[in-house]
Amino acid sequence: MKVFHDIAQAAGKIRNAVVTTGSFDGVHIGHKVIIDRLNQIAREIDGESALITFHPHPRKVLYPEQTDLKLINSQEEKIELLRKAGLQNLIIVPFSIEFSKTSSHDFVGNILVGQLGAKVVVVGHNHHFGHNRQGDYEYLHNLASELGFKVEEIPLQDIENETVSSTKIRKALLEGNIQRANAYLDHQYIISGRLQQSNESPVTQNVPFFIVEITEEEKLVPPPGVYASNLFLEGKWLKSITFVFDSNTKSQKVASHLIYDRIDPEGQKGTLYLYKKVMDLPLLGNGSLGLEYFEEAKERVEDLIY
């Protein structure tokens, strides 16, 4: 996957572009259906699939006073998930107040068609774009013949008769319902970052833990609890047990223990894949977990097949 960091960088470099736009937070099953359709159309017209997304998140720029923005993926995580989903070109547009004033007509005419040469534009159901969200499928359909491109709308995707959306995934994660979130995502929820050996064990005895460094404050971290997880590190899957501790600071503390392996991950980049919440997280008066509690949590994780 080619990654461009503005429109001008991508101009003229995408053959017969088949384009969609959006945040694609979570890269969930609905997003994957859109990407699959982009690639299918691209094969039919000897073209390439492309997604235009924005960074920082538009809400952070437009409503800086709101501090409750939580995103399923960090920027780095989203790029990797889009790569795995088979997207061919990713265009990350620096979002600003000035860019937010771009009209829907200019966005389509000057950017999608003018600079990227879009042959087909694919949008999800009820998708809006442009200044004040004026653009939608009907708007695109009316512009298509004028500007010489085709447009297609992809219906919402359902899981067990529930419509998939990033909002529902965030809700499930905030409730600690990891398995429901994973079903919507069509992959396990991930927390990526640089790993650090913990100098202070959260358990009363000296049980080795490592900390996952979360650098983006908007990254959604599930509520306090004990989670069955895998650590993917240097091409290996390592079964782990992850503890999320509540924090009154901006950053949350995520500590993991490798169940069967003894390695030093210090300074390496790794990804935690969360499978299931197995226990709540009672704390002792001194802020540490009892060894008996830890052993019970570990046993519950070991008994899981995942």
Give a short synopsis of this structure.
The protein has 306 residues and is an alpha/beta fold. The chain contains ten helices and 14 strands. The longest helix has 16 residues, at 29-44.
Overview of this protein structure:
Strand 5 (120-124), helix 7 and strand 6 form a beta-alpha-beta unit. A 6-stranded parallel β-sheet has the order 1-4-3-2-5-6, sandwiched between helices. It has a 6-stranded antiparallel β-barrel with strand order 9-10-13-12-11-14. It has 306 residues and is of the alpha/beta class. It contains 10 helices and 14 strands. The longest helix has 16 residues, at 29-44. The relative contact order is 0.13. It is elongated, with a radius of gyration of 22 Å. It has 2 domains: 2-159, 3-Layer(aba) Sandwich (Rossmann fold); 188-303, Beta Barrel (Elongation Factor Tu (Ef-tu), domain 3).
Q: How far apart are the termini? A: 29 Å
Order of helices and strands: EHEHEHHEHHEHEEEHHEEEEEEH
Content of β-strand: 25-35%
CATH homologous superfamily grouping of the largest domain: HUPs
**How many individual domains?**
2
How many strands, which pairing sense, and closed or not: the largest β-sheet? 6 strands, parallel
Identify the CATH class of the largest domain.
Answer: Alpha Beta
Overall geometry: elongated
The low-confidence parts are none
